[in-house]
Amino acid sequence: MRSETHAAPANDSAPGDGLVKAGVVLFAIGAVATLVTVAPLFLGTDPFPTVAYTVSMLMGVGFAVAAAGVLRSIAAQRRQARSGAAAPVQAR
Length: 92
Description:
Layout: H1 17-43, H2 50-56, H3 58-86
Helix pairs in contact: 1-2, 1-3
C-alpha cells in the first residue's frame, strides 16, 4: 500500500459553486431571523419591527440563489459532456 496523499487541484470549484455557498449563507441568516421573529408568538412578548420580518425573506432569496447555482452547475456539466461526446475517440 502506498502512504502517499495526493493534493487536490488548486482550482477545484465548478461553475455555480459560489452561488450555492452564498445561497446557503443567505438561507441560514433568513432561517435564524424567522426563528427570532416567531419566538414572540410563543413567548407572549411584543412582536419585532417590520425590519426583522424583512430579514426573514432572505430564506427564500437564499434558496433561489442556491437553486440558480445548481442550475448553472448542471448547465456547465451538460456543455462539458456534449463537447466531450462530440470529440472523436482516438485509438490507443
